[in-house]
Amino acid sequence: GSVTYLCGGIETQVGARRLVAFWSAIPHQIVEATRDAEYFAMTIPLTWFLQYQLPEAFTHLVLDGQVLVDPRESSKCDFDTFERWIDDLRLRQPGRERIVQLEVEARLLRFAEDLAAQSSSLKNGPKASPVCDSNSADRIRQMLSFIARNYTDQITVEHIGKSAGLHPNYAMNLFRKTVGTTLVHYVTRLRVSRAQQLLATSNDKVVDVALSSGFNSLSRFNDVFKKSCGSSPREYRER
Description:
The protein is mainly α and 239 residues long. The chain has helices spanning 46-51, 56-63, 76-90, 94-118, 120-123, 134-150, 157-163, 168-179, 183-201, 206-212, 218-229, 233-238; strands spanning 3-7, 10-14, 20-21, 28-33, 68-69. The longest helix is centred in the middle third of the chain and has 25 residues, at 94-118.
């Protein structure tokens, strides 16, 4: 079957037998599905993902909130592999978990390579390599987790850096290098995504959407939203 994801406020229809990758901190939900739709969902620990030897551009697109759809249909081999991962993980054995981790990395690398063959934004990026070492990956995980829990509050770079035990300047540099964008832009991106979702799925007043998404004024919200989405919040809701 097929499903339609609303990630932030952008709908992505996923046809049958397609693999999808997205960063689950972005507000998301399935808004439509065919009656026969059946799907597998796997949550990959962020520290695994940051240490996988994937093209940097692929990692950055996922963390920026893009919903990436594999251009190739999944084969029967994929379905057999997914079933085997479930069986292996249920054993709770470190050796089996390590096998799953390696196979997931290999499958995502194939996904990234197939996507790069069709996307100019991915073709000329750096060769596959981890975006950071294990210590840095854990610091990034701490910052991203803190942001995901608190982005609707008035958090600052200092708050985010402190959550990972880092000086604000070091936190900003590490974040930009790993995630591919600034801390301020990333927090704003999450707030806009939250606002898109509320505008698309609720009848809340625009001012209430702005405040519950983390913006402290309606004028600031309108300005940022129009720059990010190309339309005002009201126009977006109507569309």
